[in-house]
Amino acid sequence: MLNAAVELISERGFNGMSVQDVADRVGISKQGVLRYVGSKDNMLAMVYHEYYNAVGSPEEFRASGLPGSGPGAMLFPAYLRFLVQCNAQRRMLVQLFSVLQVESFNPRHPLHEEFARRPEAIWQYYSGFTWDIPQWVGQWEDMRPLVRRAMEIMDGVQLRWLREPAIDLCEEWAAMEDVLFPLPLWEGYR
Questions:
Q1: Locate the HTH tetR-type domain: which residues (predicted)?
Q2: In this structure, how many other beta carbons lie within 10 angstroms of the beta carbon of residue 56?
């Protein structure tokens, strides 16, 4: 049921689909869908929190054993590379996120506040981890503008990746990584 909602929201946006559309896609009644999700808004919350945010976390990166993932402090550029690689494997969810982000400009959208608070929430979440950054940067708190810019650039690169003709998301991010975390300044910290 939630897979069908992901597909429909990705294709049509939240405002362009209905609970009946989900029911039709999975072959059950509208009441059956509502019995499971409660409401269209609850279905959206389930899709967003249980699907989109379920992959690519710093915890998952730490457990990956990839270069820069630990066991002590993690490397932030390496984590972002991991996140991009995760996103490259879930095109429909990236499209879902992008559609919802644009729709949420409307103050009446169920995720309006969620997306409005997203930059601060990301910063707070990432601040709960120990990152190894170059001494010249200072403290983790000094990374805040760079973290914000990195997330904004990632959102933009992902939008370009969703368009035709397709680009290689990981290759494009590698070029952005060189801009955001230039060598030799970030040597040994990427």
A1: 1-55
A2: 20
pLDDT digits (tens, 9 = 90+) for 94-104: 999 999 999 99
Q: How far, in Å, CA of 135 to CA of 131, rounded? A: 12
Report the length, in residues, of the chain: 190
Q: Measured between alpha carbons, how far is 128 from 176 in angstroms, rounded to an integer?
A: 25
111 in the same domain as 92: yes
pLDDT at 53 over 90: no
Question: Whose CA is closest to 28, among 38, 39, 36, 16?
Answer: 36
Query: Do 23 and 104 belong to one domain?
Result: no
Picking from 52, 70, 86, the residue at the C-terminal end of a domain is: 52
42 in the same domain as 59: no
> What pTM did the predictor assign?
0.90
Record the tokens describing residue 25, joined without a space: 């896609």
Q: Are residues 47 and 60 in the same domain?
A: no
Give 103's contacts (C-beta < 8 A, 6+ positions apart): 13, 14, 15, 109, 111
CA distance readout (Å), 5 to 20, 60, 87, 157: 11, 25, 19, 25
Q: Peptide bond before 67: cis, by omega within 30 degrees of 0?
A: no
**Residue 151: which residues within 8 A CB-CB, separation 6 or more?**
119, 122
